[in-house]
Structure formats: structure tokens, C-alpha cells
Write a structure and sequence with these properties.
The protein is an all-alpha fold and about 325 residues long. The chain has 16 helices and no strands. It has helices at about 5-25, 35-40, 55-70, 75-90, 100-110, 135-140, 145-155, 160-180, 185-195, 200-215, 220-230, 240-255, 260-270, 275-290, 295-300, 315-325. Helix 12 packs across helix 13.
């Protein structure tokens, strides 16, 4: 399917707004077990606050999107490293707020004078911190999963290695395929096509999708099946890239691409719920376009507050989506 410029922009807006919506929906449930979610709220069906806001997932996605909009396909590791220094590492902002372990490890290394790829050598290089900011690369490289995967690996080389890179590549490639109007099966195939088939990420993704496609009597049973297919029981950290990416694609597959179902499935499975819902929202938003997102959710998203990255304060994901779909984003 060949998309028109209008189609591309609406899908781009759907992808990045979908990411922000999923992030804000999932934030209250982050690091929780499904049993804890049910005990506190029953089943999450919408925003739990009157002023929903995204977390580091949205702000780092904007950060990467602005970098990509400036450099396009000419993006280099040096560009990414300089941006991390200019916009984050070298600023006197006091304690670093609101980000995951991979970002903290990267910033510590950069501030010590280390450069990429050594800056990515820390204990959480396998985290989902690249996957959470990967959607803009799929938006930019619409219909070109391999190019999306190439570019996101350049971005990720500053902060991630191995499975952390693979998680970002799977998300970027999946969004790129969805941006061209590909169906759920083709989106999943695109994600798998850019990462090693014997990788932990690929295995988790496949297991989650298989579980999601089984006929189940109710959503709760399906969520349990998807979750049990990939989650490592008893492991305390919830930001594993193979796990989070598997859960996100499982939610997308279980929903057959429907936006509301995809993000709520991800949210109610808990674990790193803001990231899994952000990724599921980006995939479903790219597939369905802006109109796939419920209006009451879409209108609740405002410019980011800079709670994690002060330099991103005031940017709205819709404006960033438009930047990425200009004919010459540089």
C-alpha cells in the first residue's frame, strides 16, 4: 500500500500521540502486578487523574524525534552524543529526575568523559529505554523498516547494547510498517525481520504474539496468558527490553490493532506499564491514524512539562510528528 502525504501525517500524529496516551495511561500502574492493579482500581479503563501526563517515555521520544528531524537519514553517533551532552548531561539541573536506569547509567558515563559506544556499557544496557523512544524512527522511515532499524541503532549506541538495541529496532521497524498501512501480521513480521531470530527479544515477541492469538474466554485470561509467556517471575526490575517489547506486541496482537484495546491490555498487565502501553499505543496509532485514538484521550494530552527532561518542556507530540513528516525534515 502506498500512502499519500495526508495519510502519512495522520499516521505520524496517531503514532506519537498514541505513544503519549499510552504513557500517561500506564504511568500510575508502572511496576505493579495485575493483582495490585485490580485491588486498587479494578480494571483501568481510562485516565486515573484529571491532568494526565507522560513520563520519560514521551519526553525522551520527543528528544530523539527532534534530533532526527534535524539530521534525518544523515544522523550519526556523533550527532546523538553531542545532543545528549547539550540537552541533558552538561546542564546544571541538579538531581536527574524521572528516568530509568539506562538513562542514569548513560549520563553517569557521559559525565565521566566516556564516549559511545563505551557510554552504553552499564548494568542496564538491556533495558527498554531505547524501545520507549524508538517510535519516531518508524514515523520518519515510514514504509522502510530496515532504515528505521538502522537509524534507531545509531541513536541507541550511546545508551544501549545487545538486547536493548534489538528492542528499539523491533519497535521502530514495527511502527515503520504500520505507517505504510500494513496489517497486524505484517507489522509483527517487520519487527522480527530486523533483529536476530535467536535473540531473547525475538523469542519473547514470538511467544507473546502466539499467546495473544489464542482464543480466550475473556480479556483477563488473555492478558494472563500473554504476561506469563514473557515475564520472568520473581525478577524485580520491570524494564527488561525483551519483556517490555514482547508485552507491547502481545497487546497489539491481542487487540487486532484496535487502539483502545491495545493500550488498555498493556496497562492492565502491569510491569513497566507506561512503556509497554506507550509502545502498543505507537503501533496502534500508526496503524489506525489519529482518528483511531478516542477523542477524550487525545484531547487530554498537552505539551510535556519537562518533569524528566527540562529542555523538552513545552513541546507537543503532534507538532513533533509534523516535523518528522516534512519533505525535508532537516
Amino acid at each position: 500500500m502506498v500512502t499519500t502525504t495526508c495519510d502519512t501525517r495522520e499516521r505520524a500524529r496517531g503514532a506519537l500521540l498514541g505513544l503519549a496516551v499510552g504513557d500517561a495511561l500506564g504511568a500510575p500502574a508502572e511496576n505493579m502486578k495485575p493483582s495490585e492493579i485490580r485491588r486498587r482500581w479494578g480494571r483501568i479503563e481510562g485516565f486515573l487523574t484529571d491532568r494526565p501526563a507522560g513520563t520519560d517515555d514521551t519526553e525522551y521520544a520527543i528528544f530523539s524525534a527532534l534530533l532526527l528531524a534535524r539530521h534525518g537519514s544523515a544522523l550519526t553517533v556523533a550527532h546523538v552524543e553531542r545532543a545528549w551532552h547539550r540537552w541533558i548531561a552538561d546542564l546544571d539541573e541538579g538531581p536527574f529526575r524521572g528516568a530509568g536506569f539506562s538513562e542514569r547509567g548513560t549520563l553517569e558515563n557521559l559525565r565521566r568523559g566516556l564516549a559511545a559506544p563505551i557510554s552504553a556499557q552499564h548494568r542496564h544496557a538491556w533495558s527498554d529505554g531505547l524501545a520507549m523512544r524508538a517510535a519516531p524512527f518508524g514515523v520518519f522511515a515510514a514504509g522502510r523498516p530496515a532504515e528505521a532499524a538502522r537509524l534507531v541503532a545509531i541513536d541507541g549506541s550511546v545508551s544501549h547494547e545487545g538486547e536493548g538495541i534489538y528492542g528499539g529496532q523491533a519497535v521502530a521497524a514495527g511502527v515503520a510498517a504500520a505507517m505504510s498501512g500494513a496489517g497486524v501480521t505484517s507489522v509483527i513480521a517487520a519487527a522480527l525481520s530486523v533483529i536476530p531470530m535467536d535473540s531473547w527479544t525475538a523469542r519473547s515477541l514470538r511467544r507473546a504474539v502466539v499467546a495473544a492469538q489464542r482464543v480466550q474466554p475473556d480479556p483477563l485470561t488473555r492478558e494472563r496468558q500473554v504476561r506469563s509467556a514473557v515475564v520472568i517471575g520473581g525478577y524485580p526490575w520491570t524494564d527488561l527490553a525483551p519483556e517490555a517489547v514482547g508485552l507491547a506486541f502481545g497487546a497489539f496482537a491481542a487487540a487486532r490493532g484496535d487502539f483502545r484495546t491495545a493500550v488498555l491490555t498493556a496497562v492492565n498487565m502491569g510491569r513497566d506499564a507506561d512503556t509497554t502501553a506507550a509502545v502498543a499505543g505507537a503501533l496502534a496509532g500508526a496503524a489506525g491514524g489519529l482518528t483511531a485514538i478516542p477523542e477524550e484521550w487525545a484531547t487530554a494530552i498537552t505539551p510535556v512539562t519537562g518533569s524528566c527532561l527540562p529542555t523538552m518542556r513545552g513541546y507537543h507530540v503532534l507538532d513533533v510528528a509534523d516535523l518528522l513528516t516534512e519533505e525535508d525534515p532537516r
